[in-house]
Amino acid sequence: MRYRYLGLQKKAVAVILGIESSCDETSASLCINGKVINNEIASQAIHEQYGGVVPELASREHQRNIVPVVDHVLTHANINVKDLDGIAYTRGPGLLGALLIGSSFAKSMAASLNIPLIPIHHMKAHVLAHFIDDPKPSYPFICLTVSGGHTQILRVNSANEMIILGQTQDDAVGEAFDKAAKLLGLPYPGGPLIDKLAKEGNPDRFQFTESEMPALDYSFSGIKTSILYFLRKEVRSNERFIEENINDLAASIQHTLIAMLMQKLEKAADQEGINQIAIAGGVSANSGLRNRLKEVAEERKWRVYIPDFQYCTDNAGMIAISGHLLYEKEAFGALNDSPLPRMPF
Length: 345
Fold this sequence. Notes:
With about 350 residues, the chain is an alpha/beta fold. Helix content is about 40%, strand content about 20%.
């Protein structure tokens, strides 16, 4: 079997370099014969002072970090660049400037080595992160992907066939977590802080209005408004209300958001008749969501798959394993492939 555009013979054992640069983390990873052996991530603390990711600053940090990060994973794995058989990179979705840094580096390196490029869809890579470690799901399975920019329920039939069963029609659940944290006066990123505070709070103390959506779709804009109006009302009566009730507020907000996610996930599992359930994306690192999923799994006899924490947030391990799976199918890209900030699913 030969590459369609490079004229090189595919190897049975492939060494794939993965590069991730979709937002504010520069990451590189190596996958050798289907096994991810390292996962280097350079985070960007510079955005904390702005309360969110600043695209131009993210691009500059990627430019600064990408060479040392890639060099680190190769050096520590004792892999020479000439040992690489393919380079997988995030083509989209993401910030255009950030994607340009990663894709340009990957293209230049692949061209110099005359090896295939493997463009990866960022959200599909989150799903395929389940194939990094054991136990691995078998097809088909249901996957709830939850992040700062996306909330989707997918039926996963294969590495390159994923069907959207439902998705958010406005804001993502990760955005709802961060917005709620900001209203509570917590620094960015606020989602992990809500998770931490919620462990000490009463999840039934406060109630917030949930948005109703048809079928398996979500909406999180309404609950953000509900939290805002509730806090405004209470703070008018007591300026120290948030400070005095911070743990219960965090627990109640998290409880409501998780309940919204799980309701549709249970409905999807029943609709598709599938009992293999996975979660992926940055919000899948949330301990409340993980615990609730395990509780429901025991009640409904689900087999549950949750990636290791390091593979939940944006990382190159998921890009590398995706590259490996697509390398086997010869799903290669070309040097003139443009980054796609709004890459269609």
